Structure formats: C-alpha cells, structure tokens
Amino acid sequence: MSVEREAMEFDVLIVGGGPAGLAAAIRLKQLAPDASVCLVEKGSEIGAHILSGAVLEPRALDELIPDWRDDPPALATPARDDRFMFLTETKAYKLPTPPQMNNHGNYIVSLGNVCRWLGAKAEALGVEIYPGFAASETIIEDGQVRGVVAGVMGIGKDGEEGPNYQPGMELRASYTLFGEGCRGSLTKKLFETYSLREGVQPQTFGLGMKELWEIPKEKHTPGLIWHSVGWPVKSDTYGGSWLYMLGDNLVSIGFVVGLDYGNPWLSPFDEFQRFKHHPAVAAMLEGGKRIAYGARALNEGGFQSIPKLVFPGGAIIGDSAGFLNVPKIKGTHTAMKSGMLAAEAIAAALTAEERAPVLEAYPTSLKASWVWSELEGVRNIRPGFAKFGLWGGMINAALETYITRGKSPWTLAHHDDHAQLKKAADAPKIAYPKPDGVLSFDRLSSVFLSNTNHEEDQPAHLKLKDPSRWKAVNFDTFGSPESRYCPAGVYEAVGVEEGQPRLQINAQNCVHCKTCDIKDPTQNIDWCTPEGAGGPNYIGGM
Fold first, then answer.
1. Known catalytic residue at 296
2. DSSP string of 5-51, one letter each residue
3. DSSP 401-428
4. What is the pLDDT of residues 464-517, one digit of tens each?
5. Nearest 5°: CA angle at 224, between 221 and 228?
6. Torsion of CA 66, 372, 341, 9, to 10 degrees
7. Which terms are listed as keywords in the entry (predicted)?
8. How far apart are CA 3 and CA 9, in angstroms?
C-alpha cells in the first residue's frame, strides 16, 4: 500500500551534515545564490554524529572560506609538535616522522565543532538545514534518483503505525548528493542499484574509537600530536593510536583497528582500553577525567576502492565514497573538496539549457584535482600492511614514500574484511584485563558518555537477514565475534550456559559505528536508519 506524503521541491538536496555535505551546500550557494538547497541530517543537531581525531589540513577550507582564520571554529589549536612512536608493552621508542604525518600548518580541531560552524555559515547563505530528519528511502523513478523520503516517525516495534505516527515527507530535487559518511545506509543500496562498485577493489575499513579527556593544565601541551604503532595489537593486525592536545586542557585520545583482522577473539574496544595503561600514555592522562566516548568506522581503501561516483539524478561525496588518506590519517580535507567539486558541477548544470541527468563533470574534475593525485600517490601503503604485516608494511611504506614516490608500476589489492576471520577453534583466545575505572572502562559506562538514545518503540534498526545463520555460523564457527567487535555492547550471546545460545540485540546502545554491517562474516547484519535524532549526541570537543 502506498503512503501519501507531502512533498517539497528543491534544486539540490544533500543527505548528511558532515564536512562534505556542508562544504557542498556552501559552495553551491556561493556559485548559485538563487538555487534552493536543502540539507537533511539524521543526528539531533549538526555535529551530533560527527566523530574524528581530528587534525585538519586546511587546504579545502582555505579554498572554500579563505578568511576562516578570522573567525575560526571553537577549539581550533595550531599543530606544534609531531611524535611518532613504536610501543612495546612497557617502552616507547620515537621513530622518524613520515613526511605524510608532518602537521606543520595544520590544526587540531573538534570536527563536530567544525561542522556546527560550517552549518551556521551554510544557513547564513540560505541553505535550509533539517537536523533530526533521517532519510530512510531513496526515491527512484524511471531509473533516476528524484530525492529521498525523510522524517518517518512513530512506527512501533510491531511495524504498525503508533499514536505519534508521521509518514515523513518526500524531499525532491533535480540533484541529490549523498554524504552519509562511512557505510551509509542509502549509499550501500545505491551501490547495488547502479552497480557503482563494479570494477573497483573492495572497500576496506577500520574501527576508530575515541575518548575526550580533561587533564590538569600543567600537564597539557597545546598542539601536541602523538601517534603510535605496535603494542597492544600484534604485528599481523593493522592498528595504531592517536593522542592530540587541544584547547586549554583537552586531550583527544583514540585507537584504530583495521577490520581485516583475523582473530575472532580480538576485541578492538578492549585493545583501546588496554592501550591507555601503557606507561607513556598513562603518564599523559594522569590526574585527568574522561568526559566523552564514541566510535565510528573508517573507509581505508583509498584510491583503488573509489566507486563510480555518479548516477542519474545524483552523486556520492565524502566518506560515503571513501577519500581518506590513510598515511596522513586525514580525510576531512578530501571529503570537503569532493563536496565542493560536486557542487561546482551542479551549479554549472543548473544554468545549462537542458539539465543533464548525470553529473559527469564531477568525477572528471575530481580526477583532475589534488584529491586524486594525493590518493593515487599513497594507494599502496594501506594494503601493504595487510599483505606484509607491520614490519613488512613499514618497509613497503618507506619504499613507496622515498623511492618510488607513489609512482610504483603496480597497485596492491584489497580484500573483503568480513571474509578474513579465522575459525574460533583455530585462533588463540585473548585474555583482557578488567577495567580499573581510572584509565580503562567497560562498554556500558562508555556508551553512557556518548549520550546515545533511541526511541524504544520502533522497529530495530539492526536486522538479521537470516536469523538461523547466527547459531550455525557466528556462534558455532566463529565464537560470536559480534559480541567483541561491537564497541557499544549491542550484541550479546545469551543462554550459553543453559546450552541454548541465542543472540540478544541491544539496539538502544548503538552508536552508529556500522562495524557490524561491515565485519559480520556472512554479511547477515543489516544496519538500517533508525528514527531521526536517535543515536549518539556527541558534545563539543568530540
């Protein structure tokens, strides 16, 4: 049965209020002030779902808003001291800083604050922004994207319309840009509908977990940028840390684990908690207090995993496509530039005598831009770690950086992360220490600090395509890995002691990191969009 909805018409619709979507909105209004531009964001406000380290390379921002330093986002702190460390269990050894990790001229920022700041700039230019408005369905007519359905609310767990039911609205546009971030729920369907991943390498991902700490001012070094590899993960697992000091007393600390790891007993969250007990790290956090927590997946495939970016009526921008420069540990500048280039293609199309359905100018200009050459030059570094491990990967990175300078006559391949797990019986179990409540913490207290909440009476946004697969595959073969790779305690194997194991899904805990959608060994978990404003509400500083 079709649902009757009100419709609103725009020249351009943007799905997602991250750096790419906001940059696109601003650039559009700069070039086409009379164009009607609407941006929808599933978070309760712009920035609510934004999580990153983050060190900002201002190249794209300089192009978009040249005088931004006269009125910068809150907490923007100039980078001053780069340190790249190799950790053993008790020691920290300083390594030469790779040139890609030289942060001279960059800024430590709260990416959430940057997006709030960009949102204000966009609204001042006349962009209509609707936060808490989740896009749940793409409107496709005669093979062309015509917009999205957004704002559906009040459907109960039983699938029936509740007393507060709202059918949502059809937001229609000549062009729709999808900037949903990593593993966007609508974007992954567009990949299938338009075969956008045909002929490119599989995307590979990392899980990034972050905490925000307040530390005593006398221990705070504004502008310190500290990265590490090595302990606590083994050399066959891609991973590493960051620690950035910003503002007067804030520390952004986090850990990334590549989701191509093989041991199903590994818990990225517990590796992060264990990492903070390293003497060098604990010394920097001593006397401090953890005030926020979050997690999100990262597209790490880079150049060889970029999908086809355009289709009739729309385009994909930002981390939905995957423009992260892994060796730089940065993707905000490339995401913003992709949004700007898409906006320029749309601005030209809007003034053409006949509006072309496919924005071919966007991928053409992207391939001619610094984004393309930057990603092409580092394309072999991330897969080198997957192929050769930590030490071989570092040798390969040195070769690519200093000898071939990104011009090697070969391109290393990626693999599907979900296919890399070993059977539980063939992998060593990992014993993690209990959290001490001072440096390390459990999942539930962490989720509490993410301010995560979902309307309880709604259909679960985490679905098993085939529920019977969980016991036969996930539990019996892989030992229920989802109970460990989820950084929010969403998945629990219960009834094990009684001999009747079943999967309990605590969807209320979900911080929208998308790891389950990526790492499930048979791709049986489907992450769908919950009601708008659900999920985390990250504070300023995250």
1. yes
2. -EEEEEEEEEE--SHHHHHHHHHHHHH-TTS-EEEEESSSSTTTT--
3. IIISTT--S--PPP--GGG-PPPGGGS-
4. 999 999 999 999 999 999 999 999 999 999 999 899 999 999 999 999 999 999
5. 130
6. -130
7. 4Fe-4S, Electron transport, FAD, Flavoprotein, Iron, Iron-sulfur, Metal-binding, Oxidoreductase, Transport, Ubiquinone
8. 18
| Catalytic option among 44, 513, 515, 529 | 513
**C-alpha span between 130 and 126 (Å, rounded):** 13
Is 528 among the residues known to form the active site?
no
- Predicted confidence (pLDDT) per residue in 74-128, tens digit: 999 999 999 999 999 999 999 999 999 999 999 999 999 999 999 999 999 999 9
Catalytic residue chosen out of the listed positions 38, 115, 182, 516: 516
Catalytic residue among 27, 290, 296, 379: 296
Catalytic option among 52, 138, 365, 477: 52
> Known catalytic residue: 115?
no
Q: 201: which 2 tokens?
A: 């390498």
Active-site residue, 452 included: no
Q: How many Cα atoms within 13 Å fall on the side-chain side of residue 460?
A: 14
Q: Tell me the C-alpha distance between 252 and 245, whole Å.
A: 6
C-alpha to C-alpha distance for 174 and 158, rounded to whole angstroms: 36
Measured from the Cβ of residue 171, the count of other Cβ atoms closer than 10 Å reads 27
| φ, ψ at 436 (rounded to 5°) | -95, -5
Q: Choose among 302, 319, 298: nearest CA to 519.
A: 298
Active site residue: 110, 332, 338, 515, which one? 332
Cα end-to-end span (Å), the chain: 43
**Cα–Cα dist 512/530, whole Å:** 10
Catalytic site includes residue 332: yes
Going from the C-alpha of 76 to that of each of 55, 106, 118, 215, 508, the distances in angstroms are 9, 10, 13, 18, 33
What distances in angstroms separate CA 522 from CA 18, 423, 428, 439, 472, one per listed residue? 30, 13, 22, 35, 11
**Residue pLDDT, tens place only, 186-234:** 999 999 999 999 999 999 999 999 999 999 999 999 999 999 999 999 9
Q: Residue 535: how many CA atoms within 13 Å on its side-chain side?
A: 31
Out of 483, 486, 515, 529, pick the active-site residue.
486
Q: Which of 439, 435, 181, 448 is nearest to 293 (CA)?
A: 448
Q: How many residues does the chain have?
A: 542
